[in-house]
Write a structure and sequence with these properties.
The complex is a heterotrimer of chains A (204), B (580) and C (232). By secondary structure, chain B is α/β, with parallel strands linked by helices. Chain B is 48% helix and 11% strand. The radius of gyration of chain C is 29 Å and the shape is extended. The chains are: A mainly alpha (204), B alpha/beta (580), C mainly alpha (232).
């Protein structure tokens, strides 16, 4: 019975949304309602995920595992932010400063580390793979893209050289288009498998 | 120091002064006194392989080889343990305590993998480990009892005969134990004490198929035992065993589904060949497949591999640090000692021009959707990219509906718009936060048309006017999320012009949408932002950053070229071709 | 206000240095900053979900709405309750219904987006490049456009061949089961080169973004130090 109910839910929701792409004016209010419920459910699922994170850190703390100190940091930061956010509003200056002055430095610094790591790993780019058509294309394209981004030369428009440059600039687009089509086909297949219940991400 | 004489005939204890046994009156003249104070309980602990060395199944199986000894200890465990010199000698045999260390390296690796991986082979091996663990747990509670029953089970005896001493034939490596004639004296004495007749028990063959429990498990036990024993011990004793074909027999494992036969030697000993029936182990197809898989993994693990060059961890760390110092120094010098000019002319691309023209030609009081879809770490780049367009939009006094599909977007949107000149009197509608980009994109595109309404449906915060938007600006740091917006808005509101203000990393993957006309303008990364700044003849924002960007990019190009020219390891195939 | 900026600036400076200290290896300062970030982000997300989703989508309609409006909320309320109950071991199976709802919604929207947002428009763009009207639009660029259209078609088909969305071939007459047919092999080889070119461009883009973030951090550190020294 439960399986049938699950099947009915997946098919009804899926087919209604798909029909919405074709009969939009007719189904728009219904789709709006379905998506509002979906947003609500996704939010609750997000809260459950956060709950798991905190629960995990609390149990780590209770068991006095290695690294329990960092769990204390997580819990204190969480509680402080949650309370401030509920007492104030997310748009209040203090709350905004709190979020931005922690998130921006941490995330940007992590990206800075990525920059150093990319330079370091570039040393071994070909070393690990050897000379293959793909690695040659990758290296040549990366170097060429970097050089083109630096705009050392200002080429006048409507000259044969400008056409050549345009052609070179467009070369990555070919591969990217293929990749995008591949991803779209992959998404289509996965979506169909879920709707046809070949794959069941919600459990058996 | 307390010596006693053990009767060689009846194994009775006699005082060291005795000349004849008080039990059987046998002469004790030739018997050397044995010191019972030399008995050390820790030795028993060590000897009792159930305690320490039996952390794995091979250890348990090896423990079986010592069964006679263990029973002796078990029965005499009340403190008055008598141990003959022969037993002490057995204890000191190197193979017994070091059983764990004798497990081959490949088997250790498999076990390690099995404990980490959930694959089918891992599952099998984990099953064995679980069985071992269960045995170990049971042992703690009823150690010797359990051991007896286990032995009994192995011997195929009914539960009622638990008290019987264990058969000695299972000691595959000990050739003396294969017949009563070859039994050591100490064992004979113990048997005498226990009143066990070796003739009665020696004839019962022990085979894996006789053991109760899961057949696959036992097959694998045999596999492990076979791998270890047959590798280590078979070599030692093979000559002897080949002479006596009664001691070895073959077990056929018949795959009934396929009809194929897998023949495997299961080494058992027997005294009377006439009483032995060839055991048949029936393995299902699934079990066979799993076992084959395990065999394949074992084969693979044992296959010779080219020696791997040890990676210098410390040198890698030093190189990374050197790279970091060089890069940061180079960037700092460019930032603080650079001229500040040099923003490129001619970096503009057609899609940049299209975005800028659209913003500059925007009608007054247009309704625009601004999607903040980037994380805090990208705030600086997005700010550089979006500034010229947002400035133009603000000047047009458009009505802005802002929406965030990342959590940071909620505060970043206020920060970015707050930094713009003339943003104070902006008419902003906050559509809120959408935890899933694709839902937000669909909702926005879906609501942007006039539509009927359900009666009495509660008013929700993200209601959009039915007239839709005059354009959408997507500020994003990732191509996959920006793509979701482009896809949904295109599919549902194809007339709505979409502009992308994205990071350098997202730009290349979104170019096809510009090429196909799905996106009507785009600015990606610092180069294109610098191009717009150059066009507007204002280098105040990007300025020195551009110099530093150039320095960093040139460093990367140099490093890539150095790596490509000097640090290429040749593939083995290339080397073969060269040598050929 | 200035003091406030200085305090937050120092916080940002400390966090930046703590994270960048990872360059000399994993250490306690890096972990401290990372865990602080995790806790704060989790708290912030919880605030957003409660304030911007739970309250307006569920709680307000239930509290402020009339009876008919509340009736509308039975559906989402039931789904939320089922999802929450599914976290209890006894009621795990109840979670299937709300999850099936989300799965159906997501699958459909992904299909719709892929088909109407990418597959059709992008395929059309490839085909339209062969339109003679496009070639004639700018006579100076005619041959460039022809070449561009041909390379685009071959490259895209090559990339798709490299992905090879097909079943494993059934071996016939001793043919290798994994081996693709020859035309596929050739196209896949071409596709491999174009994928390499595309990924090279993406790599350059990722580096540009990361480099700009590093530049921004250097500028920030300099700015805060100057401010603390009273020069900024």
């Amino acid at each position: 019975m439960k399986k049938v109910l699950v099947m009915v839910v997946v098919l009804t929701i899926g087919l209604t949304v798909l029909a919405g792409y074709l009969f939009r004016a007719l189904l728009a209010p219904l789709l709006a309602l379905l998506f509002d419920w979906g947003i609500l459910l996704a939010g609750v699922a997000g809260l459950i995920g956060i709950g798991y994170l905190i629960h995990m850190n609390l149990s780590k703390l209770a068991r006095r595992e290695k690294g329990a100190f960092f769990s204390v940091v997580v819990i204190i930061a969480f509680v402080f932010t949650l309370v401030s956010g509920l007492v104030m509003t997310p748009q209040s200056p203090f709350f905004r400063d709190l979020i931005l002055n922690v998130q921006i430095p941490v995330e940007a610094s992590l990206l800075g580390i990525l920059a150093v790591t990319l330079v370091y790993t570039s040393l071994r780019l070909v070393r690990s793979r050897g000379w293959t058509p793909m690695s040659i294309a990758f290296l040549a394209s990366a170097i060429l893209s970097l050089i083109l981004n630096l705009v050392f030369i200002n080429i006048p428009t409507d000259t044969p050289l400008s056409y050549l440059m345009m052609f070179i600039r467009r070369l990555p687009l070919i591969g990217v288009r293929g990749i995008l089509l591949g991803m779209a086909l992959g998404g289509l297949v996965v979506g169909l498998r879920v709707l046809l219940m070949i794959d069941r991400p919600y459990g058996e | 120091m307390m010596s006693k004489l053990i009767c060689p005939k009846c194994s009775a204890e006699n005082s060291d002064q005795s000349t004849h046994c008080f039990e059987c009156e046998a002469s004790l003249a030739a018997v050397a006194p044995s010191d019972i104070n030399n008995f050390n309980p820790s030795e028993v602990e060590e000897f009792d392989l159930m305690q320490e060395s039996e952390n794995d199944l091979p250890g348990l199986l090896s423990a079986l080889k010592q069964n006679g000894d263990i029973d002796a200890i078990d029965d005499e465990a009340d403190g008055a343990v008598e141990q003959s010199p022969a037993i002490s000698q057995e204890n000191s045999l190197p193979e017994q305590p070091g059983q764990e260390e004798q497990v081959p390296d490949w088997l250790n690796r498999i076990r390690q993998r099995a404990s980490e991986e959930e694959d089918s082979v891992g599952e099998i091996t984990q099953k064995i480990s679980a069985a071992q663990k269960s045995l170990e747990d049971d042992k703690k509670a009823h150690q010797h009892q359990n051991f007896k029953s286990w032995l009994q089970n192995v011997r195929g005896l009914p539960p009622g005969q638990a008290g019987n001493p264990p058969p000695q034939q299972e000691d595959l490596g000990d050739k003396d134990a294969q017949s009563p004639e070859h039994d050591p004296d100490w064992l004979l004495r113990i048997r005498k004490v226990k009143g066990t007749d070796p003739e009665d028990e020696a004839t019962e063959p022990v085979s894996i198929s006789d053991q109760g429990g899961d057949s696959l498990l036992q097959w694998l036990v045999a596999l492990e035992e076979g791998d270890e024993d047959s590798q280590d011990q078979l070599e030692d004793t093979s000559a002897l065993e080949l002479e006596d074909d009664q001691k070895t027999r073959q077990t056929r494992i018949v795959d009934r589904d396929q009809g194929s036969e897998v023949t495997r030697q299961v080494r058992t000993t027997q005294q009377t060949s006439s009483r032995v029936k060839p055991p048949e182990l029936h393995v299902s197809r699934e079990e066979q497949n799993q076992a084959d898989q395990l065999s394949a993994v074992i084969g693979d693990e044992r296959a010779p591999r080219p020696p791997r060059e040890p990676e210098g961890k410390s040198s890698a760390w030093v190189i990374r640090l050197v790279v970091a110092v060089l890069l940061i120094t180079g960037l700092s010098l460019s930032l603080f000692l650079g001229s500040g000019g040099g923003v490129p002319q001619g970096a503009l691309q057609p899609h940049n021009v299209a975005a800028l023209s659209w913003a500059e030609e925007l009608e007054a009081r247009s309704s625009l959707l601004l999607v903040f879809d980037y994380q805090s770490g990208f705030a600086e780049e997005i700010s550089l990219v979006a500034r010229p367009i947002l400035q133009a939009v603000i000047q047009s006094e458009s009505e802005l509906s802002i929406l965030s599909s990342t959590a940071s977007g909620v505060v970043l949107s206020r920060q970015l718009l707050g930094d713009m000149a003339g943003a104070d009197g902006l008419d902003i509608i906050d559509l809120g936060y959408f935890p899933v980009s694709v839902y937000g994109a669909f909702s926005m595109a879906n609501r942007a048309i006039p539509q009927w309404r359900f009666k009495n449906l509660p008013e929700l915060p993200n209601l959009v006017s039915g007239e839709g938007f005059d354009g959408a600006l997507i500020l994003s740091d990732r191509h996959d999320r920006a793509r979701v917006w482009v896809e949904q808005l295109n599919a549902l509101s194809p007339q709505m012009p979409i502009k992308l203000l994205v990071t350098s990393q997202a730009g290349p993957m979104l170019m096809p949408y510009w090429e196909a006309g799905q996106v009507t303008g785009m600015i990606a990364g610092i180069t294109e932002a610098a191009g717009i700044e150059a066009l507007q003849e204002d280098s105040s924002v990007i300025g020195n950053r551009w110099q530093a960007y150039r320095t960093g990019s040139i460093m990367l190009i140099v490093v890539m070229l150095i790596g490509a020219v000097f640090l290429v390891d040749q593939n083995p195939e290339d080397q073969e071709m060269e040598s050929a | 206000m200035i003091l406030n900026d200085v305090v937050w600036g120092v916080v940002g400076l400390l966090l930046t240095i703590m994270i960048l200290s990872y360059l000399i290896g994993d250490n306690v300062f890096f972990r401290l900053a990372a865990h602080l970030f995790v806790g704060l982000t989790a708290g912030y997300m919880a605030v957003l979900i409660i304030r911007q989703i739970l309250v307006p989508y569920l709680i307000q309609p239930l509290i402020n709405g009339g009876w008919v409006e509340r009736l509308w909320m039975i559906g989402p309320l039931a789904l939320v309750i089922l999802l929450l109950l599914s976290q209890l071991p006894r009621f795990t199976s109840l979670g299937r219904i709300p999850l099936a709802y989300l799965a159906g919604l997501t699958a459909a929207v992904v299909i719709g987006g892929a088909v109407f947002g990418t597959l059709i428009p992008q395929s059309r763009a490839i085909v339209e490049a062969f339109d003679p009207a496009v070639w004639q639009a700018d006579p100076g660029q005619k041959w460039f456009r022809v070449l561009d259209a041909v390379v685009m078609l071959i490259g895209t088909v090559g990339v798709l061949s490299y992905f090879h969305f097909g079943r494993k071939l059934i071996p016939r007459g001793g043919q290798d089961a994994i081996k693709k047919p020859y035309p596929f092999e050739v196209l896949a080889g071409i596709g491999q080169v174009f994928i390499g070119i595309a990924l090279g461009a993406v790599f350059a883009g990722v580096f540009s973004t990361a480099l700009l973030a590093l530049i921004d951090r250097i500028l920030f550190i300099n700015q805060i130090i100057l401010r603390l020294m009273g020069a900024g």
